[in-house]
Specification:
heterotrimer, A mainly alpha, B mainly alpha, C alpha+beta, A: mainly alpha, Formate dehydrogenase/DMSO reductase fold, two-stranded antiparallel ribbon, 13 helices, 64% helix, B: 2 domains, 6 helices, 2 strands, 49% helix
């Protein structure tokens, strides 16, 4: 085992600046989309009084929970004492802060009154999980920065583990809080389920890790830094377990809903005849986001191939966006059950006439705003790794420390 | 070198002073009350003019919380009162929105470069039946009792 | 056009012809007569509200709780008097479709405070008509979830939005079990003085809060329903045992929509 050396990302300037240029243009286009929606009002979006949260929220929530998930790697290293993961801690922290920034930006820029952000920061209603989330998000940012300091600065070393533990609990609280935004809503059948909170935690593990792996493989590949099979295999297997976890919670969520007769209509609609939402669920969430990456990860041959592993990560991300689409938009599109046992024949305000779902079509500005948030996250990450020492020089098998922290108990070092 | 710097500094201070003085003088001398509004015929607003100039936003803000949360409608500091009294009617007796650049609110806010967003939501002209009921208190405060005028149709018995 | 609207508005304004424009005196005189005539026609059997009550000068207190009772048996199929009156009273009819917006989409984007719903019982086939609006819950989910506290319940039980602190996050709309809230999706330029409204904030039925504060007896929808001859909606103080609404509630069975949520709504329905 050698000493881990961290070094700035030194890809050729032409490549670096073109990457930055592309990301900056996506950010710029996102900003224009925001300006357009803010100037015109939300009528130019697909959102309405029936589907009040749309595509921007799909991106925002996805980025926010991924942020929390991306910190996992650092937590495994420090809190669970797996030295193997320690060299990845810095990138994990940076990516986590960057993703959170991107997600929050999208969330804030979709407000009806974004210029009143200061109101949201100064007046609180503590019965609202949303208000708590404001603290969870800003606190998370602060803790991650402290965490990064403790990893990078020698003076921070003694605090590394305590901060890591706080960060781990904080990130669990953050994802629980984000899930609770939906889980606490009694009004809509598809929400009103506490299981959404832990489900979001597991989803964050999977999506955050998938993004982390892609960023890691890309940045190392660009510069020719080696990644050993040992670490990659570990990450890949971890992703597999997280995907299985998402499956489990998805299954339990639907079983819970199916058990009582009052939600049969919802589950039937979502799984069988919900149109785009049924498609998004089966093809996006289950097939692309679950079965296909699992197939790759546990395939005897494909799982050895790095391009396939990268593909699996990309599929998880696509599936993750699909799952957010189903959870956020599908759940709103399904009509609210105000009069159980009755059919709405006519309504002056789209109360699900004859059981019809609310219409929602994403518009281009919404998608661009969401992509802008993704680009912000990647931009922050690329600048971060370029100017500071976030990336280890090598993750080759012989450089990395042992899987387990054995040396503490057995100085002889039987492992590795 | 040091001398030059001092001299330059003095000149800068002098210029700034002239500028500030101009602005203050202009603000003092200029009135934004428009011809053809009720306010033009009155001595002063619901508070002395200098208080209104400096504090109207605080007065309105205080009032707004009382009205929205407490339902109090007798405050003389209501925005509806501002609009009712300061609105200008053109030749066809049509009111001109008060936040326009050359109207009472709009002109001064443009001069002071302060964002004016009350009228994103609030009516910029008195509109709808009962539009002036919120301004009774304001009119009473300035000595124009319009309560007689306000109930002309014999509905109160 | 203005005149006809305002004549119909007879019960809606607080101080009827409170116009101050000098040129209006003849119109006022005409409207005075018109109002008198309307009142004479409408008056029999109707407790005419008085407009003599002064505007409120003290903060609302919890000794009253405003509410509505809706007798669905009297709510007529195809009648939209309450919806139209609400539109006039609260300036909802001043919303205009932005250029380039699709009509169907716009219908779901414009603000609606009260709507008619027609239901059929799946088992028995019985058809019911009713108006839906903010139910003015005692424990409103929209108030619980609002991050800034802009969504609030006034001491007299009216649930409303303080649009000075609303940031437009729409979480209250996610939380409302009655789909009672609307988001303003477009730039507004034509507002009524009594009902401010602007892009990017959420709003909903506030039981004609300006009428409450100026001491009027009922709401626009109640008046319109009565004028249409149905009297399907009763407005009143749920805390006053002698109020009409309480007396009616005492004699007829009523329910809350989504009773399972235990929100103790201020709007009660009979016949559902």
């Amino acid at each position: 085992m050698k000493r881990i050396i961290y070094r700035e990302w030194r890809i050729p300037p032409a490549r670096y600046w073109s990457l930055l240029g592309i990301l900056a243009s996506v950010v710029g286009i996102g900003a224009l989309a925001f300006a357009y929606m803010e100037h015109q009002g939300h009528w130019v979006t697909g959102m309405s009084n029936s589907v009040v949260w749309g595509t921007p929220h799909v991106f925002a929530v996805f980025l926010i929970i991924s942020a929390s998930g991306a910190l996992n790697i650092a937590s495994i290293g420090t809190v669970f004492r797996k030295p193997l993961y320690k060299p990845l801690g810095r990138l994990s922290g940076l990516l986590s802060a960057a993703l959170l920034m991107g997600g929050l930006l999208v969330l804030v820029l979709d407000l009806g009154r974004p210029e009143r952000l200061v109101v949201a920061m100064t007046t609180y209603n503590f019965r609202s999980i949303f208000a708590w989330n404001i603290f969870l998000y800003t606190g998370f940012m602060a803790i991650v920065i402290a965490y990064l300091w403790s990893m990078a600065d020698r003076h921070g070393e003694p605090y590394n583990r305590p901060i890591g533990i706080v960060a781990t609990f904080w990130r669990l609280a953050l994802t629980t809080g984000t899930g609770a935004i939906f889980g606490f809503l009694v009004s809509r059948q598809a929400y009103d389920a506490a299981i959404l909170a832990p489900m979001f935690v597991v989803m964050s593990f999977a999506y955050g890790l998938a993004i982390f792996m892609l960023v890691l493989m890309f940045s190392f590949g660009e510069e020719g830094r080696p990644i050993g099979d040992r670490i990659l295999c570990r990450l890949k297997n971890l992703l597999g377990i997280f995907i299985l976890g998402v499956f489990y919670f998805t299954l339990v969520y639907h079983l819970t809903k199916l058990y009582g007769a009052k939600n049969h209509d919802l589950v039937g609609w979502l799984l069988l005849d919900g149109g785009i939402y049924t498609f998004m669920f089966w093809v996006g969430w289950i097939l692309v986001g679950g079965l296909m990456p699992l197939g790759i990860i546990y395939h005897p041959v494909l799982s050895k191939d790095r391009s396939w592993i990268a593909a699996a990560c990309a599929l998880v991300i696509v599936g993750g966006l699909a799952s957010m689409y189903v959870i956020i938009i599908g759940s709103q599109a399904f009509p609210m059950q105000m009069f159980p046992g009755h059919t709405v024949l006519e309504s002056g305000f789209f109360d699900g006439v004859q059981g019809a779902a609310a219409a929602y079509r994403p518009t281009i500005p919404e998608v661009l705003l969401g992509l802008g948030g993704v680009a912000v996250a990647l931009l922050v990450t690329s600048v971060g790794v370029r100017v500071l020492q976030f990336l280890p020089e090598s993750l080759a098998d012989d450089v990395l420390p042992a899987d387990e922290e054995v040396s503490a108990q057995q100085p002889a070092g039987a492992g590795a | 070198m040091a001398k030059a710097a001092v001299r330059a500094g003095l000149v800068a201070v002098g210029l700034a002073w002239v500028l500030v003085a101009q602005v203050v003088l202009a603000a003092d001398a200029k009135t934004y009350v428009v011809e053809g509004s009720k306010a033009a015929a009155l001595e002063s607003c619901v508070e002395p003019t200098d208080v209104m100039r400096r504090k109207h936003m605080e007065l309105i803000k205080h009032q707004r919380d009382e009205t929205v949360h407490g339902g109090i409608r007798t405050s003389k500091h209501s925005l509806a009162g501002c609009v009712d009294c300061h609105i200008r009617y053109d030749a066809d007796h049509a009111p001109t929105p008060i936040h326009r650049k050359d109207e009472f609110c709009g002109a001064c806010h443009a001069f002071a470069a302060v964002n004016l967003n009350c009228f994103d939501c609030h009516a910029a002209v008195p509109k709808g039946a009962g539009a002036d009921s919120a301004s009774h208190a304001a009119f009473q405060a300035v000595g124009v009792d319009r309560s007689v005028q306000a109930r002309p149709d014999g509905e109160d018995h | 056009m203005g005149k006809t609207t305002e004549m119909k508005d007879h019960h809606e304004p607080t101080d009827q012809a409170a116009d101050s424009r000098p040129a209006d005196s003849s119109r006022r005189a005409f409207m005075g007569v018109a109002a008198g005539v309307t009142a004479a026609v409408v008056a029999p059997g109707v407790v005419l509200h008085s407009v003599t009550a002064a505007p409120r000068s003290e903060a609302v207190a919890g000794d009253v709780r405003w509410g509505l009772l809706i007798d669905t048996a009297k709510c007529a199929d195809g009648c939209s008097a309450c919806v139209d009156a609400c539109g006039r009273e609260n300036g909802l009819d001043l919303q205009s479709k932005p250029e380039g917006a699709a009509q169907a989409h716009w219908d779901d984007q414009k603000a609606v405070w009260i709507r008619k719903v027609k239901l059929r019982d799946n088992q028995t086939g019985r058809v019911t008509n009713l108006p839906m609006m903010c139910q003015h819950c005692e424990h409103p989910p929209c108030v619980d979830v609002c991050p800034t506290g802009a969504s609030f319940k006034r001491a007299d039980g009216i649930v409303m939005v303080d649009r000075h602190t609303c940031i437009g996050c729409r979480y209250c709309m996610m939380a409302c079990p009655y789909k009672a809230r609307s988001f303003i999706h477009e730039v507004m330029e034509d507002q009524l003085t009594r009902v401010p409204r602007g892009k990017g904030c959420v709003e909903s039925c506030n039981l004609c809060v300006h009428r409450r504060d100026f001491g009027e007896a009922s709401t626009a929808c109640v008046d319109a329903c009565r004028e249409a001859g149905h009297e399907a909606i009763v407005f009143g103080d749920l805390k006053d045992p002698e109020s009409t609404i309480r007396l009616r509630l005492a004699e007829m069975a009523s329910r809350q929509i989504r009773e399972d949520l235990s929100l103790n709504t201020g709007v009660r329905y009979s016949g559902i």
